[in-house]
Amino acid sequence: xxxxxxxxxxxxxxxxxxxxxxxxxxxxxxxxxxxxxxxxxxxxxxxxxxxxxxxxxxxxxxxxxxxxxxxxxxxxxxxxxxxxxxxxxxxxxxxxxxxxxxxxxxxxxxxxxxxxxxxxxxxxxxxxxxxxxxxxxxxxxxxxxxxxxxxxxxxxxxxxxxxxxxxxxxxxxxxxxxxxxxxxxxxxxxxxxxxxxxxxxxxxxxxxxxxxxxxxxxxxxxxxxxxxxxxxxxxxxxxxxxxxxxxxxxxxxxxxxxxxxxxxxxxxxxxx
Length: 272
What we know:
Layout: E1 10-14, H1 19-30, E2 34-39, H2 42-51, E3 55-58, H3 64-78, E4 83-86, H4 103-113, H5 115-131, E5 135-140, H6 153-173, E6 178-185, H7 191-199, H8 207-217, H9 228-239, E7 250-253
Parallel strand pairs: 1-2, 1-4, 2-3, 4-5, 5-6, 6-7
Helix pairs in contact: 1-9, 3-5, 4-6, 5-6
């Protein structure tokens, strides 16, 4: 018997048109959830929503009114909100060196990665408090917030700030049985990572080559690279009642990369 873990729960997923967001949307729907996809990629988002029996709404998370409208759609559709996944984000193009950062680009990145998350937590919390049923708010962070040198400065700052916001919000919202957690992936061969690699010099890299690289360099589990489905499974766990006593937590989906030095693995290898 297949256990459906989100039966009749209502979820809003920002950045749900592709990549991690789309994988989570599909997995949530397979587990019985009603999903609203909020994105700026209208054609892709509408296609995914239709395929899972969900709803789509155009949503630029940097605009608070757009995020509020996405949550209002969920409420008008099903009457309540149980899950909010703040997944929309960009890699940024503010420059490599701290000495030459383009501050306009940094502000733009923060408007999406950080302010967009604030908008999502704020309006999801309002709906969940009013509904008096509790809920789960999940934010997609990054291993870059834990370990320096994994991403550009602006992206790293935005995700580190998100982690602090998650802990702070969890303190306030726990009294309403609203859990607030984040997920920190690393080395996931998504469209965003592929685009970032190409933008910063590796113009000929293919999706397959990216998978090979992250499978050998971004995990203690050699030959076992991350997938967007790994992150979606983590989101499913945090969205479900199985994680009912977990809040203010950062769930790392990184193959151990930010916890241990893979260069030491030779100690445990058979000398033969």
